[in-house]
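Example record used in the benchmark description.
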Amino acid sequence: MSDDQQTGPRIRVLLADDEKLITGALAALLGLAEDLTVVAEASTGPEAVALARLHRPDVAVLDLQMPGLDGLAVAETLRRELPDCRPMIVTSHGRPGHLKRALRVGVRGFLPKTVSARDLADIIRTVHAGRRYISSELAAEAISAGDSPLTPREADILALAVDGSSIAEIAEQAGLTVGTVRNHVSSAVSKLQAENRHAAARIAQEHGWI
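Model output (structure tokens):
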């Protein structure tokens, strides 16, 4: 570590993962670095947003899958409300939809959960310095997985079906007629070769298409 890292202001970090054991271990390991300090640990998406508003971290390390709001939704909120906070996503899989959305909402780091604490610390420094880090492993997975067969409207409607909403409820939320929603759902179910809209939503979510 350089003298600048040792004597300069510490990089303030927020960690968010629904597995508290992971955040606790990472916080302890990152805390050993003289230029990093973990200011908050969250276990849900809404909690991550609330703690970020309170502590105003320099970098937010967000698990992709969290209760309430996923990491990408949290990142989008933070980029809008706290533009000085640089969000990073950690995930187990590189899905094309996830990576594309991450870049679109301003995520500065996209890396696997298998990353070591030492490498994570270096990536946090890279992101804090204004550079972007995309794991070559996850990028390759995303490219090989292929693009979504869904239209933007079909993806939006399936996203509303994730929580088990009825066709009528989806139509109300989307501002569309029930018949239009049925047509989009039928098309999406056919494209994904799913049994029903809930299975189609699950498949699309697993691939990062919604």
